[in-house]
Amino acid sequence: MAIAKAERLMNLALCLMNTRRPLSKKELRESIEAYREAWQHSSEEAFNRMFERDKDDLRELGLVIDVDENALDGELGYLARADRNRLPEIALDAEEAAALTLAARVWQQAKMSGAASGALQKLRAAGVPFTETEGRPALEPRIPAREAAFEPLLTAARDRRPVTFEYRKAGAAAAQQRSVEPWALECWRGHWYLAGWDRDREDARVFRLGRITGKVRARSGAFLGAVPEHVDVRATVAKFAGEGATATAVVRVRRGAGFPLRTKALGTRRIDDSWDELDIPFGNGLGADLAEFGPDVLVVGPEELRADVVDRLRAVAGAGAASAGAAGTAGVDRIETEDVRA
Q1: What percentage of the chain exceeds 90 in pLDDT?
Q2: In 3D, which of 62, 50, 46 has the Cα closest to residue 13?
Q3: What is the mean pLDDT of residues 229-245?
Q4: pLDDT at 208 over 80
Q5: Can you name the residues that pair with 221 across neighbouring β-strands?
Q6: Alpha-carbon distance 44 to 114, whole Å?
Q7: Which of 116, 130, 219, 283 could form a disulfide with 245, with the two C-beta atoms 3.0–4.6 Å apart?
Q8: Cβ–Cβ contacts within 10 Å for residue 136, how many?
Q9: How far is the first Cα of the chain from the last one, in angstroms, to the nearest whole number?
């Protein structure tokens, strides 16, 4: 079936590219055997569906198909003009070709690996001198894209389509619906992030894909805001992660816990057999990160960070109280006790 479709698409492309005037659907049906059989053995509707799908597939492959509404006494005419379907000569030096080959290999674990391989094949067919090395290198870069939200967000960003999704912020007890105009995706330290315009908050925001719950749903309509010429997702995420921060927070971390925090520590001191004290760069978003460690992390200072972490823990405990009754109150008391202890 795949071979039959490929042959049908090739025949349609040849008909559209080797005619000096627009051809009607009837003329194309009479010229291509597969269309004629679909019309004779099925129906006019079956032929129309097949033709529309094939036309869309050719356009997806890059063929420019013009539609002339007045060429055939009111009937639509179709034509692929040679001057609009001729690519300019592609010239890449060895370094550029090597970079494209490396980029294609990077995407091997993502769903667009087929598109990357297809792009290289087209460039080879155009005469670009790609050089293949024998075997694979011992170390090869990979970009994993395992989050279910990755593919629909990448498509939405490419097509400039707004989306909605459920998002659970760090330290939050429940997810909230967000309406976003996606700008760009970027991988930073093993995690994928989306930058875009949050319509509800009327501000640019960054979202970690691993915190998106449920399905990403594309919405109709165009973007309401302008897309920046350059979107530096990594710099924004680094800022919220405390990278380059000038302030320092002092936190106590339970022995055998908080290893991600320990890697950021500027200094470490042993308090007793159970606790270590760490100096950590203090930037936006640190409170959310600390809240994720729960009772294994106690904030010593600054005061604004202590208050932020306590508020987040109380919010989580309050959500538990709504479903567990008195257990939630016990959780708040425990949080307050640990806060005083810090």
Answers
A1: 17
A2: 62
A3: 66
A4: yes
A5: none
A6: 34
A7: 283
A8: 8
A9: 69
**Greatest pairwise CA separation for the chain in angstroms:** 91
pLDDT at 267 over 60: yes
Q: d(Cα 323, Cα 331) in Å, to the nearest integer?
A: 13
Per-residue CA distances from 304 to 204, 292, 337 (Å) = 24, 17, 18
What are the tens digits of pLDDT across the range 112-148? 556 666 666 666 666 666 555 444 444 455 556 678 8
Cis, peptide link before residue 302, omega less than 30° from 0:
yes
The whole-angstrom separation of Cα 59 and Cα 35 is: 18
Q: 172 is written with which tokens?
A: 């939050």
State the pLDDT at residue 239. Answer: 61
285 touches 235 (CB < 8 A)? no
CB-based burial of residue 237 (10 Å sphere; 0-12 exposed, 13-18 middle, 19+ buried)? buried
Please check whether residue 157 is in contact with residue 185, taking contact to mean a CB–CB distance below 8 angstroms.
yes
CA dist., res. 2 & res. 20, Å (int)? 30
* Cα separation values, 324 from 54, 175, 269, 337, Å: 58, 19, 38, 20
Q: Of 149, 167, 169, which Cα lies nearest the Cα of 218? A: 149
Q: Which two tokens stand for residue 101?
A: 């080959």
Phi then psi dihedrals of residue 229, to 5 deg? -65, -35
Contacts of 307 (CB under 8 A, 6+ apart): none
Cα 173 from Cα 318, distance rounded (Å): 9
Residues 6+ apart with CB under 8 A from 336: 310
Percentage helix, strand, coil for the chain under 3-state DSSP, each rounded to 5: 45, 25, 30
- At residue 146's C-alpha, the angle toward residues 145 and 150, to 5°, is 60
Q: Answer for the pair 329, 321: CB distance below 8 angstroms, yes or no.
A: yes
Residue 169 CA to residue 292 CA, distance in Å, equals 11
Strands 66-72 and 297-301: unpaired
- How many residues make up the chain in this entry? 342
